[in-house]
């Protein structure tokens, strides 16, 4: 059979218009203007010995007369008119019949009707409402914790109504509830800590709980009293019983209670900031009608407890909010005063973790990943950023179950089941991430939380009340503590501040770059001018000296060595001028990227060096290469300088060798050029790339101190990177990281 699933019958059930009431009272509906009876419950005769048909279409005062209610003493007409006009006034009073019986009369307005409910006064309340409020306030204000307040409230309600079980039931964000306090008679199983699925209380029922703060089901086995209307037109419009205290109960819920073995039920709504925080849920295992005044006393407890909830949660919320805000403001000050933004955010004392309850944090900034605390790996963090870029456009995103939305996150759920992200720049893939660890937990449900599905006579699938309430255990994984509003709020504010600082810093850098460019241009011009102007007199010195060497008068044993030193010095000066000119030209030259066959380039350089060092040529091993796009002339100069240095400074080793390798990773290639030469002291750091800088142990080798400066400048123009590893006497390895694309300045 092709079944059509209909699993929303609970949420769609029209529980506010059941067309009947519970039988522990009777109901009348009056036309608002004329106060003529338009509806009456079928059990009217049970209370006033008046047939319903004799009540319909008659003025309300006729009913009171026939029912033996003294209208003069009770001033009923004035009370009803006042309630219909002003629904905020007191909605009940006690009326007395001529035979001495007392009834609660509850009046509510509904559309064009005034609904009157009459319920016998069954017992007198020993304590006044004021006394209860005073006692409650003392206990609530004196409670040391919210748990203590809840537990005491459960005990107080149980004392008033005498039910077998009183629970305080708190709703979670997903709608399911947990029993967080309980007062229960001896001999009954405790429900403390049990969870109930959200489907146990449908959406429309929750809305009514927000409006009707107390609700009673006096006897689940009692037969409801039908509501009769005065004419066919009225019958076709269901009477809205939203505010009725006697409103009949959904048959689904009645069956639910029967399945639990509960015969009577009572609840008090707990409201916090306008939302349903939870319920005081009461069960009795025998029918039990709670007097209306007692129900109102429990309503007072609920209102006081609701006020206490708001107060306590606001106090805790305010304290945490202030703490997070103070840490955030300290972070903003720190970042403003520090040039290195990542270092400031990862400070040991005050860092990204200080402003939330996160267990780890990460910063993606300028193509680097910085982490603090317990986080996924760098590769995993980058995968999160990639997923976020394609799946959300929100500047701030948060979840406490990342694996549910991002399948790959299951691999690192132990460190990052919870994620809160702030996009600093989606275009540049720059984010701040906060992580919360997985909080595996065992949840005890009052029965299987999945409602059973039954097939009705039409072959439709529908939800039915649960039959089993045996404890059903669920292991919850991949979920963290949720992000609260304070954490989300402070993250949003910090993002605004940080983006502003980054933009300010970018403007500062732009201005500095303009000044630096101007300085570079002036330096290039100066270098070019000086070098060019020196070449002519230097050439003259060399030429005249060579002429003197050809003259026999200057060919003595004393004069000749001195003249040869002059020629050698002039050659060295020419080389220096040539390299300085080359260095200055780089600043003015444009980069012209083209495809470079790396193997051909390196073989050409190797051949030239083998000729230049034919008497002491080290073995040059090209192990692997990787092609890329760059300015071919400039990159020839880079590799020629680096390999030439490796050959030169290892030439005096016992077995000189130079090894060249390439490793590709994504859109980057890393070349390494290793030698077994004299090495470099790492204390020199990046000074070796400074102009005219030569190391102390390089005195025996020819050089100008310009080559590595040229290499560095060329690589900067290609947005490439160079670094080295070395130890004096044990050789040097230079590394070049080049992008495969045409990413150049």
* Low-pLDDT runs: 1-8, 458-464
Question: Can you summarize the main beta sheet?
Answer: 7 strands, antiparallel
Please name the CATH topology of the largest domain. Beta-Lactamase
User: Helical content, roughly?
Assistant: 40-55%
| Radius of gyration using CA atoms only | 44 Å
Task: Indicate the structural class.
Answer: alpha+beta
| Secondary structure tally, helices | 20
Tell me the number of structural domains: 5
Beta-strand level of the residues, as a percent range? 15-25%
CATH architecture of the largest domain: 2-Layer Sandwich
SSE inventory with pairings:
Elements (H helix, E strand, L loop, with lengths): L3 E2 L3 H4 L7 E2 L4 E6 L5 E5 L2 H5 L11 H8 L3 H4 L1 H10 L6 E5 L5 E9 L2 E8 L8 H14 L3 H16 L3 E7 L5 E8 L10 E2 L6 H9 L2 E4 L7 E5 L2 H4 L15 H10 L3 E9 L2 E10 L7 H46 L3 H5 L14 E6 L2 E6 L4 H14 L4 E4 L2 H4 L7 H4 L1 E8 L4 E7 L4 E6 L6 E3 L4 E4 L7 E6 L8 H66 L8 H30 L4 E4 L1 H15 L6 E4 L5 E4 H19 L6 E9 L2 E8 L31 H11 L3 E6 L5 E8 L6
Helix pairs in contact: 6-11, 7-11, 11-16, 16-17, 17-20, 18-19, 19-20
Summarize the entry for a quick read.
With 745 residues, the chain is α+β, with helices and mostly antiparallel strands. Helices cover 40% and strands 23% of the residues.
What does this structure look like?
This protein has 745 residues and is of the alpha+beta class. Helix 11 packs parallel to helix 16 (485-550), helix 16 packs antiparallel against helix 17 (559-588) and helix 17 (559-588) runs parallel beside helix 20. It has five domains: 10-15 and 125-224 and 242-309, GAF domain (Beta-Lactamase, 2-Layer Sandwich), CATH 3.30.450; 20-120, PAS domain (Beta-Lactamase), CATH 3.30.450; 338-438, PHY domain (Beta-Lactamase, 2-Layer Sandwich), CATH 3.30.450; 484-588, Helix Hairpins, CATH 1.10.287; 591-745, Histidine kinase-like ATPase, C-terminal domain (Heat Shock Protein 90, 2-Layer Sandwich), CATH 3.30.565. The chain is rod-shaped, with a radius of gyration of 44 Å. The strands form seven sheets. It has a seven-stranded antiparallel β-sheet with strand order 2-12-4-3-7-6-5. A six-stranded antiparallel β-sheet has the order 10-9-8-14-13-11. It has a five-stranded antiparallel β-sheet with strand order 16-15-19-18-17, sandwiched between helices.
